[in-house]
Amino acid sequence: MWATAFYIMENYHVDLKDLEFPSKILQFAVTTASGNEESVSTAVYLAILKGLERLLLTDVLSQQDSEVIMKLGVDRLCLPSPQRSLAALGLVFTCMYSGKQYDQYSPLPRDTSKNSSAYNFDAVYQDPESLILAMERVTVLFDRIKKGYPYEARVITRVLPTFLADFFPPQDIMNKVIGEFISSQQPYPKLVAQVVFQVFSNLHDQQQTLLVQDWVMLSLSNFTQRTPISLAVWSLTCFFISASTNRWLRSLFPHVVNRMGKMEVVDTRLFCVAAMSFYNQLTDDAQLRAFVSTFQMVISLGAPYTQLLELLSDSKK
């Protein structure tokens, strides 16, 4: 029944535009999909969401209809069932990328080469209220990562960096991404570390390396004070490698991510190498001094910080 209804709406929308049929079907679809899991089977739920996606992609819905569907998708993201929540994730992304939601956001061009100039974000994002609404949806996604099953978190973190790069100015996403990475409530720090790495990679590609460096310096003290020391060192190593433009160092990232919780000699060496690489990238004297000062303030917390400061001291001789 649902397949037939959506087929009619998709292919005969011109003939139906003056009738109540499309609005009634859409209202019934949203009401049904909003029902609890006991009253609506998974098969019916998935059929409705897939049908709504088709209508969005074929551009047969009004702006108001698309807004209703977006709200449905965001609401259904909170369902306990992974199968249902991931289907809702697909619906939300379809709404965003089809450009039909109320915010009227449009994805950034994906064919920009790595050597081209940075995006003119001011020209793309002109409505602060729309940006706030969109950022609320990002918060919902990060909340789902925290509350979801491991494979849900893997799916979301896999697509999240590209989504963020397509829709948001970097200055509006950095605080959120970094904050989630160092959150003590984050059950999947390895996955969020990969999000940080990819977000930074996207910014490097957009010639926003200086912005990355600024955010690393702003966040540095929060990382150094994490406990236990093994977690702080691991987080900092991932952070510095993500911020690095050295491709050889960046190639170590998958190995470093899997070293979480370990505090062996190799981990200290990796930390020092990554930290020195980042330090050598800095060109601003104030940032160079701030970098050293940050680790001097936590020198008593562990040997890795002491070794790093010794290396920094030797490099100045």
Automatic annotation (TrEMBL):
<protein>
    <submittedName>
        <fullName>HD</fullName>
    </submittedName>
</protein>
<dbReference type="Pfam" id="PF20927">
    <property type="entry name" value="Htt_C-HEAT"/>
</dbReference>
<dbReference type="GO" id="GO:0005737">
    <property type="term" value="C:cytoplasm"/>
</dbReference>
<dbReference type="InterPro" id="IPR028426">
    <property type="entry name" value="Huntingtin_fam"/>
</dbReference>
<dbReference type="InterPro" id="IPR000091">
    <property type="entry name" value="Huntingtin"/>
</dbReference>
<dbReference type="InterPro" id="IPR048413">
    <property type="entry name" value="Htt_C-HEAT_rpt"/>
</dbReference>
<dbReference type="GO" id="GO:0005634">
    <property type="term" value="C:nucleus"/>
</dbReference>
